[in-house]
Amino acid sequence: MSGSETIPRSTAEVLRQLDESGITRAHWKIMFISGMGFFTDAYDLFIIGVVMSIVKHQWYVTPTADGLVTSTALLAAAIGALLFGRVADMLGRKRIYGYEVLVLAIGAIASALSPNVWWLIGFRFILGIGIGGDYPVSSTIMGEYAGKRSRGLLICLVFAMQAAGLIVGPGLAAILLATGLGHGIVWRLLLAFGAVPALAVFQMRRQLAETPRFLLASGRHDDFDAAGRSVLGTAEQQHRAAVEEASSPARRVSFADGFQRLAQRRDLLTRLIGASLAWFVMDFAYYGNTVSSPKVLAAITPDDSLFWHVIMQLVVFTVAAVPGYFLAAWLMDRLGRKAIQNIGFLMMAIAFGLMAVIPGVERFVALFLLIYGVSYFFTEFGPNATTFIYPTELFPVETRTTGHGIASAAGKLGGFVGVLLFPIFMSRGGLHLAEGAAALVSLLGLAITMLMLPETKGRSLEELSAEPV
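and the corresponding structure tokens:
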């Protein structure tokens, strides 16, 4: 259903009511169920830095294997995003929702049982498939239910659940290390915990209803009306019956169809390239710094123990990163996506640049941590949030999760490259080379945003996806 198609008056009225709706109980429920996946994603992706600080000494891991362990999940996430993103446009959001966290949980449990580093790499690949699949489906479900004045807030809050994962990861690691348990048990417990929140929301995700906009695009006007009125709080019982009918979609399209549709419209292709490139450079800088944060902190306080490096990581995340997530959510529908992404990329470039050019910055611990914290704050306030929101709003409903999946995959590829290269930069040129690279790609992200991406705040999804006149 493109924005230019003629739709019945009653259908148009339900769409208008959905767009004008405030935040309902149904919206908060969907936000929580979707957001718990991102708590798990953040935990699983970033705890591996702590785990490898332990494992590399037990298994005598080579630098190559170390890089593969920390980056393989990101490479697999690119595949998962493409696969789940396309299938969700073909079969429906409800039809596959929940299976991505099941794959994630299987990968987390298997990783905890790994007998050696190569098995760990393989199981992290499985985990990454599930992580990648969560991005396009969760974002789109939230976006297709939300009203246009609160869409940015709600999608951003889904993503902001990462903040809890960032805190729980090093927090749990610090507790386990402080107990005196053997390090061989600690790292396995840390990896296994990643399955707990994923399994907790599996059944809740399976019970979520199909989104009204996908039902409409599938030609199910009666189901669309029931689903829409349920979100608005006027037809809960009617909607439950509609949910059962909606579980088998009426239309069938090929796997390649969505990619072809995105390529055929010049405006959509420009948006797709812009969103994908911005996400690539953002994740290059972000994951390179975050997954390698134990190495970064070890570079400035080499005499401290792993426990104190984990505590420092926890403080940086709590003081700098978490407020950035929630300030972004509060301002997303006020300032707009483009403005926030521009501010974020610019401040990231300045912070990374300062770490790269100040001579001996790693010797001034307080100064370094201040700049490092600023980089985290503006990453979370800026493009880490907006690159997730943008693809939900830039494409028509028939290709929405496909487009999001491509952009997500580009981001995870950027993260894979960043995580793989960051330790190499650190070993060859220290913090100056690693942070200098992060500063340059942040400037590139600023240019991409300014030239290729529109402002989307306050506009309906149908208006945003309409073909140019």
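(Above: one complete record from the training split.) The radius of gyration is 22 Å.
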